[in-house]
Amino acid sequence: MAIGKEGNVKWVDGLRGFASALVVLTHISRAWAGNLFWATTAENTTPKLLQLPFLRVLIQGRLGVSIFALVTGYVCALKPLKLYRQDKHEAAFISISKSALRRFPRLFLPSAAATVLSFLICELGLFSVAEHADSGWISQIPPRKGSLFPAIGNLVYEIGAIWIKRNNEYDRNQWTMLPLLQESIKIYAFLLAVAYIRPRYRMLASFAMFAYYWMGNDPVFGMLGFWGVLIAELQFEPATARFIDQQRILAPVLSAVLVFSGFYVASYPESHAEWMPWSDNLTHFLKPNLPENPDLPRFSSGIGLMLAAVGIVLSPRLQEILSSKILLFFGKMGFAVYLLHGTLMKTILSWMVYGISVPADHKDDKGQPQMTRMKYPGHQTLFVCLLFWMPILYGSAYAWTQYVDPWCERMTNKLVEKIKFEETKGNGYIPMSGVQGQGHGPGHHAA
């Protein structure tokens, strides 16, 4: 969608690239610097640089997952909302139907392809270095079956398991696939339900759904999904454009305050928030306004992202930055980076950090064989390795977008063409039932 009177809507692609990079950084931190997720390394000690507010967002991947949830809601709602506002309901219904039909295969096929890749690496024994690593995150590798039929059976099971129990032994990072699919289907159903109400009330309904998931203690895929719908509606709202155009000073200042506040709230540590005054104060500010037994870290990321997203909508300059060619390029590779980074961390990066030789097992005090763990060589070694590994990751992701993604797209298109009605067999239009209005065509008749 081009930049027009509704504003720049490409910025979400740049945001998606930022999100995938955050997920990669957080998993690197989890693997080798887990105490960075604490408010500070120990009570009554000075925090490290990456434990400070704002900077710690870079290593706390919660915000990355939150961005995926918000972007899903925004993208699912974007085209239908625009068509509703143009009084093109039939085109909107067709768009929703096609998007809903394509949604599962467009998630399933890349997910399955990444699982097959990890499966092959596992059965070839290429996770052996990761298995012997002293990092708990890295050493979590899938079981190697060693024989053909049990291995293939386990592969088929794990490909399906991610859509049933949100777990995949070959790639645990895919746990987000099912909730993202569920979120998008809920949003498609919501868009059908609110098709014939005025934009201001549709925005109110979006906010009501957001509030429902807030109170229901779902701070990611429910709450942020409908906040994404609300953001899309807000960007199309003429009053937003008027405010930005007329308030040349207030709008940028308000945007900066919202983005700054958002990243501050999103900096909330995962553990030991009471060890630092700034995070302890956030705890006392947030907790009374949240439901019972809230997931404070995820709520903080969600609230911070909500504030920042409104700030971006109010700032054409920020939208232009997020829509730059470089960020759009990385945004295009965001999903591929998300799917590939775990496998590449447990192979190539592990080989760089620990070497390629696996030590022999040793015996404990009771004479029982024990796996020998390889010692992490330190952050300096890791930093040097990342200078070479990051280009490998993004080069692999680029190759994925050039070859695997187009194949998934072709397979999805073939499936949709195979199962859908021919265009002449239905107009895809859901008429209004007994609602009078102008420009709704069949809407003047009963359903």
Automatic annotation (TrEMBL):
Q: Which UniProt keywords apply?
A: Membrane, Transmembrane, Transmembrane helix
List each copy of the Acyltransferase domain by range: 10-355
Q: InterPro entries annotated for this entry?
A: Acyl_transf_3_dom, Acyltransferase_3
The terms under GO molecular function for this entry are:
acyltransferase activity, transferring groups other than amino-acyl groups
> Which is a Pfam family this sequence falls into?
Acyl_transf_3
Which residue ranges run through the membrane? Answer: 57-78, 107-127, 185-214, 220-237, 249-268, 381-401
Q: What is the protein name given in its UniProt record?
A: Acyltransferase 3 domain-containing protein
